[in-house]
Write a sequence for this structure.
């Protein structure tokens, strides 16, 4: 959850949504995101809405799980009063921050509350993010016993100097242990990487990829480092203390990752994500890309139902005050108009392999398909089957593809 909230309209204290946006809600999947905004230290590159112990100012980490559970109850009431269909949760995702800074029993309590409030669909995916230094075997077994199905480890790199630049605190030598413990507990495993850190070489990146493949995860995410304004890393770059990441080097790193992962049997299904098969994709994140409904729990969390998007107040103490008052924690919201909805639809679906149907595009966009194939940006065979599938070059130039389709 980014730390900067967008501008928007006032959000009502009762959390009610426009009745028109309940239309066809029974046909859309419903997911729950639970933001746990706590970290031991603040990494220099991070722009997420997170807080260390010294930044909480009136909020208590120990109280958070009960506050999140109370928002779940509020959410269920607001959705029902708005005429939104009562649906079991297809996915639940605990993100942060570092969810696993909380005791495993508290994560289990929040999952139990979600299950009691909405129910879980058969085969529901339940994920938590985790830092490699924040869990042990017993912790992961507790999560699995509580109904978690998947853990996403923030590995970022296998190279100590790269981790030091990112100000990550874990020991890369711990990765094989946490992966083994998670697998032994019966959890699917994703390893999440960042590439393009200042000072990182292609050799460093290859070492990280080799480490990932040696640990045989079910899923891999690889994201280019983005220097967010206001972060410590942005200030270091502005002062000349570290170098600006190179776009060309990041492109080379992406190509290296795709080649290594493809050779090892992982297929890309979204621009920054690879999985062993369809069963090991991140179904929660797919829900964001394909336009499912979700409610975001916690400070700074974003939610989306029908054509309404809203976001919660940022600071844990402000969030706690709203929850204690029985009011919506939303800071603002917006209704997505038809033109913005179409732009978002194309932007998001085009990133997902096989998701954007050519027949759903307007005439002008369909006329671009032949040129995009000729330019090597989308796959010709997939286009014959009716979908816009980015080529490797197209994934590197995804924004250009979207501009030609909208």
């Amino acid at each position: 959850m980014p730390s900067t909230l967008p501008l928007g309209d006032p959000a009502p204290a009762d959390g009610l949504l426009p009745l028109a946006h309940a239309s066809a809600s029974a046909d859309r999947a419903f997911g729950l995101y639970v933001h746990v905004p706590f970290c031991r230290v603040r990494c220099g590159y991070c722009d997420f809405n997170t807080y260390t112990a010294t930044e909480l100012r009136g909020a208590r980490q120990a109280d958070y799980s009960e506050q999140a559970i109370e928002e779940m109850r509020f959410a269920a009431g607001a959705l029902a009063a708005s005429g939104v269909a009562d649906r079991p949760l297809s996915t639940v995702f605990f993100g942060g921050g570092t969810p696993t800074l909380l005791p495993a029993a508290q994560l289990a309590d929040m999952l139990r509350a979600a299950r009691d409030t909405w129910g879980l669909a058969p085969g529901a995916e339940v994920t938590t993010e985790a830092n490699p230094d924040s869990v042990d075997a017993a912790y992961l077994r507790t999560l699995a016993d509580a109904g978690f199905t998947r853990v996403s480890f923030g590995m970022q790199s296998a190279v100590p100097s790269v981790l030091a630049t990112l100000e990550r605190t874990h020991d890369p030598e711990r990765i094989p242990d946490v992966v083994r413990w998670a697998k032994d507990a019966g959890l699917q495993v994703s390893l999440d990487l960042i590439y393009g850190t200042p000072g990182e070489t292609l050799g460093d990146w290859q070492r990280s990829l080799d480490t990932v493949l040696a640990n045989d995860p079910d899923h891999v995410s690889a994201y280019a480092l983005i220097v967010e304004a206001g972060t410590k890393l942005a200030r270091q770059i502005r002062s000349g203390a570290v170098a600006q990441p190179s776009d060309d080097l990041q492109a080379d790193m992406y190509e290296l990752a795709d080649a290594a992962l493809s050779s090892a049997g992982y297929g890309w299904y979204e621009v920054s994500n690879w999985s062993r098969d369809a069963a090991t994709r991140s179904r929660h994140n797919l829900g964001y890309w394909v336009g499912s409904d979700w409610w975001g729990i916690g400070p700074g969390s974003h939610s989306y139902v029908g054509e309404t998007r809203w976001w919660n107040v940022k600071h844990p103490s402000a969030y706690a005050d709203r929850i204690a008052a029985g009011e919506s924690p939303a800071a603002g919201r917006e209704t997505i108009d038809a033109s913005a909805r179409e732009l978002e639809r194309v932007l998001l679906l085009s990133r997902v392999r096989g998701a954007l149907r050519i027949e759903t595009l307007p005439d002008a966009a369909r006329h671009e398909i032949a040129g995009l194939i000729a330019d090597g940006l989308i796959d010709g065979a997939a286009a014959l089957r009716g979908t816009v599938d980015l080529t490797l070059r197209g994934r590197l130039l995804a924004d250009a593809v979207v501009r030609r389709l909208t």
